[in-house]
Amino acid sequence: MIVLDGVSHAFDGRPVLADVSLTLAERRIGVVGANGSGKSTFARLLNGLVVPSAGRVLVDGIDTRRDAKAARRKVGFVFQNPDHQIVMPIVAEDLAFGLKPRGLGKAEIAARVDAALARYDLAHLRDRPVHQLSGGEKQLIALSAVLVLEPAFLVMDEPTTLLDLRNRNRLAEAVAALPQPAVVVTHDLDFITGFDRVLMIEDGRLAADGPPAEVLPFYRERMR
Amino acid sequence: MTIGLYAPGASALHRLPAGVKLGALVAASLALFAVPSTIVALASVPVAFAVYLSTGLGVPRLIRELRGPALLLGFVFVFHALAGSVEEGIAAVARFASLILLASAVTLTTPVSEMAALVERLLGPLAPLGVNPAKVGLAIALAIRFIPLIAEEYRQIREAQAARGLDRNLLALVVPLVIRTLKAADDLADAIEARGIET
Q: What is the pTM of this model?
């Protein structure tokens, strides 16, 4: 469970999020909002990449301000552009990268990497250079590199924006099958129609909060 | 773009530890330049070829790898032939060719993560002086990861600027490239932090 308690945030005095209090306990939560509405900041608050100017964010009771490292371990984060998320030049190396500081043995790391790749039928990409992969493959590798760390929650910031329809569908299936609760920030409204809850952010405020059948028509209306 | 990146395989060189390979490379280069004999220099070339081919990566790849250095070797030869003698030129080209082949054989059979781990170990003794070996290792891995990424960004920007007739304008190419690269670096720093690595 992730709890936001009176959270406000400003970048260099410019407010981007104002007084948001929420309890995120559903399995699938979508976040919508216009460009610059503050939804990326909202996503980054959830794993301690951004620490709020005021208020608290609690991840299973861990305050992101007090122990950002422990919070980040709990919350996996998938970015919009896998090119900017994948650190190592070879697929298997990138999956192993996040595991390295956990003090696991070489064989244990290799076994976990192989298992993570097998999950989305990506084993054949194991030793391939990342820059030769397609956009869809890269996004699945980025997701696998996060899942290999076994986070308790997943946050995704516009994960389908750069994907074609087939890869977007593949990613949607992958997300649907995840055991972890996931918060997905997106402009792809079809992606989240089957979710449990949708938050709409407007000018740094929570403008709507409810099931997709209520929030999405409202959002569509507001964007006219 | 190959830039001598790791190519997976199962050759003897692939299985050797990175430290042994790098040590042998350093020893070979010292020996090549310490021994002034042209015959030794010439004899080293087929040996280096054999080492390269033992990686199992094949001749077409070798030719691709050597296309860039070939020009450099041409300059080396002309310089030596003019400043010294043709024989010196041949010996210098042979030495450099051997080194390039051996160095390619090492980089092509060593994953970046192993190379970075080796650098971390080698820098270990400097930790008390304030050097952070893990950070240096990560920086090396990131530099190699970024080369194809920046090349791709450059290609996109050149296309976009060509579409409005600005592809010959250096500023129109460099400014967006620098901005995009800085943005990518920012995102990457976030991504590294998000994966629980201290930066």
A: 0.80
Cβ <8 Å between B195 and A83: no
CA within 13 Å, CB half, B185: 11
Q: With contacts defined as CB-CB under 8 Å, which chain B residues touch A90?
A: 6, 8, 111-113
> Cβ–Cβ contacts within 10 Å for residue A163, how many?
21
**A16 contacts A9 by C-beta, under 8 angstroms:** yes
Q: Taking each helix axis from N to C terminus, what angle separates B86-109 and B18-34, rounded to the nearest 10 degrees? A: 180
Q: Using the beta-carbon criterion (under 8 Å), do A149 and B196 form an inter-chain contact?
A: yes
The answer to whether the beta carbons of residues A209 and A25 sit under 8 Å apart is no
Q: What residue type is assigned to position B107 of the chain?
A: T
Q: What is the rounded CA–CA span in Å between residue A208 and residue B1?
A: 48
Alpha-carbon span B23 to B72, nearest angstrom:
25
- Tell me the CA end-to-end span of chain A in Å, nearest whole number: 34
Task: Please enumerate in sequence order all residues whose Cβ is within 8 A of that of B83, keeping only pairs 6 or more positions apart, or say none.
Answer: none
What does the alpha-carbon distance between residue A38 and residue A53 come to, in Å, rounded to a whole number?
A: 14
Give the per-residue SS3 of A37-91: CCHHHHHHHHCCCCCCCEEEEEECCEECCCCHHHHHHHEEEECCCHHHCCCCCEH
> Best residue in A87, A99, A102, A157 to probe B by mutation, most B CBs within 10 Å?
A87
Report the gap between the CA of B53 and the closest CA in chain A (Å): 20
Could you tell me whether strands A153-157 and A75-78 are parallel, antiparallel, or unpaired per DSSP bridges? Answer: parallel
What tens-digit pLDDT sequence spans chain A (224 residues)?
A: 999 999 999 988 888 999 999 999 999 999 999 988 888 899 999 999 999 999 999 999 999 999 988 999 999 999 989 988 998 888 999 999 989 888 888 899 999 999 999 999 999 999 888 888 998 999 999 999 999 999 999 999 999 988 899 999 999 999 999 999 999 999 999 999 999 999 999 999 999 999 999 999 999 999 88
- Give the number of beta-carbon pairs within 8 Å between A and B: 83
Q: Which of A137, A156, A183 is nearest to A79 (CA)?
A: A156
